[in-house]
Design goal:
Blueprint (H helix, E strand, L loop, with lengths): L12 E2 L2 E2 L1 H12 L16 H9 L3 H9 L5 H12 L4 H12 L8 H10 L10 H8 L4 H7 L6 E5 L6 H12 L2 E3 L7 H8 L6 H20 L4 E4 L5 H7 L6 E7 L2 H9 L10 H7 L7 E4 L4 H12 L2
Parallel strand pairs: 3-5, 3-6, 4-5, 6-7
Antiparallel strand pairs: 1-2
Length: 313
């Protein structure tokens, strides 16, 4: 099956449960028309989806409707399910996770798994469970995903002046890791976009709500137990302090380059940040002492590989 952007590994946890987040992803992706019908949509509400809803004692149709209402995040939906069907104990959740992560390993589902492996031509891969199969079939590494279950979630924050390639590198990194990606531009209020489009640099009062929104997004991802990639220019230490809620779990990567190279790149793209404003960015920049710093003259693929090696991702 193809890797579907936004569809998490089944090993990903929401609260105390594996798989629950993947089920929510499928519901949302299907509603948005981004879930391949032949591979996924035909099984919505069946198989592992049905098992998960039975464990929570919540009808799938109700969970689907509540998810698509759009007013709750993943943890909020899990809390809603626990209120609707009754909270599960830590021991019950541990049993659920153990059962799901070992499904089709020496049990009645082993023959189904063997057939799936053959159909997907994955005989050369160390597939021992259905979760492993789903990861390998979708282009992920289940060993990496299982290992993340033993680690705290992290957010990679890519910083640097405008035009340094934060979005390009961030998107590629998130795609390789199958993590969520959000660009700093997504958090700007309309007034900021209008100001920059007019060639006017932002002041600290303009930046305050933008940095607060990025901080809230990062805090939400970490609270949900999710790994993510986010960009933010974060040129000054004060801005980094405002945007980063947890320095231990936010991994800072500084994409650094010289003025002529970045100016050339900015002149070749369409963006509300005008090339004439680049000088003010360099003047504002306070290079961080606690970040992984990489030279942007290298191709994006090399930068992604360097980030993964240095940060152990």
């Amino acid at each position: 099956m193809p890797l579907v952007p936004g569809l998490r590994t089944p090993y990903a946890r929401v609260g105390r449960l594996v798989y629950f987040g993947r089920m929510l992803d499928k519901i949302r992706l299907h509603a948005a028309g981004r879930l391949p019908a032949a591979d996924y949509a035909e099984n919505l509400g069946r198989g592992f989806d049905l098992r998960c809803c039975n464990f929570l004692r919540v009808p799938y149709a109700e969970l689907q409707a509540r998810t698509l209402a759009g007013d709750l995040d993943d943890l909020g939906l899990l809390h809603w399910a626990e209120q609707r069907g009754g909270e599960r104990t830590d021991e019950e959740c541990e049993v659920w996770n153990g059962f799901m992560m070992k499904r089709c390993w020496r049990d009645v589902g082993a023959s189904v798994l063997a057939r799936r492996i053959a159909e997907s031509r994955l005989e050369d891969r160390p597939v021992t469970t259905m979760f492993d199969y789903l990861d390998f079939d979708e282009g992920r590494d289940p060993v990496v995903n299982r290992s993340w279950e033993l680690r705290d979630p992290v957010v990679v924050l890519l910083m640097g002046v405008s035009g340094s390639g934060k979005s390009t590198v961030g998107e590629k990194l998130a795609a390789e890791l199958t993590w969520e990606f959000r660009d700093a531009d997504d958090f700007h209020p309309p007034a900021n976009v209008a100001k920059m489009s007019a060639g006017q640099p932002l002041d600290d009062a303009d930046r305050a709500p933008w940095l607060a929104a990025i901080r809230a997004h990062i805090a939400t991802r970490l609270a949900r137990g999710e790994n993510a990639v986010v960009t933010c220019s974060a040129l000054r230490q004060a801005y980094r302090d405002a945007a980063i809620p947890d320095t231990r779990r936010v991994l800072l990567v500084h994409l650094s380059g010289d003025y002529p190279l970045i100016l050339e790149r900015m002149q070749q793209r369409q963006h509300f940040m005008k090339p004439a404003m680049l000088q003010s960015q360099f003047e504002t920049l306070e290079p961080p002492a606690d970040a992984l710093t990489l030279d942007i003259s290298r191709p994006p693929e090399e930068l992604v590989a360097a980030i993964r090696r240095a940060l152990g991702l």
